Amino acid sequence: MITIDNKTDYLVDTKILEVIAKALTNRDIELIICDDDEIRILNREHRGVDRATDVLSFPLELNFEALPLGSIVISIDYVRAGAKRYGHTPKEELALLFIHGILHLLGFDHEIDQGQMREKEHTLIKEFKLPDSLIVRTKGED
Q1: Of residues 126 and 132, which shows the higher confidence score?
Q2: At what angle do helices 116-127 and 15-24 cross, to 10 degrees?
Q3: What is the CATH number of domain 2-138?
Q4: In this structure, which of 3, 4, 59, 97 has its CB flanked by the most CB atoms within 10 Å?
């Protein structure tokens, strides 16, 4: 189950997000939707990077089945800009960023792996019939 803390005016459609989450884990996930200002603060406090970003993941350190997997924070400003830039809907962009975030919660890390996270994203994007812009924009970053 996804618990949503929506700090914006964006109406979140959870159907596809719930389907994605169920396909990857049976643990609960907290999803926080905020603006660039708030995610910038979190990025600075937790990663030492003083700029807004699209998605942050905070896995729960205790790995017990009964506990939530962790929290995903997504900037609605990035969702709207990405949807416009790549020519798809905000709903699709949110799903793409959610996939990216949940994979981080599951232990994937594109900054140090050999492309495994990007490959898993590609598989999930095809499975859920989402636009492949997440793969296109991250190609070569691993």
Answers
A1: 126
A2: 130
A3: 3.40.390.30
A4: 97
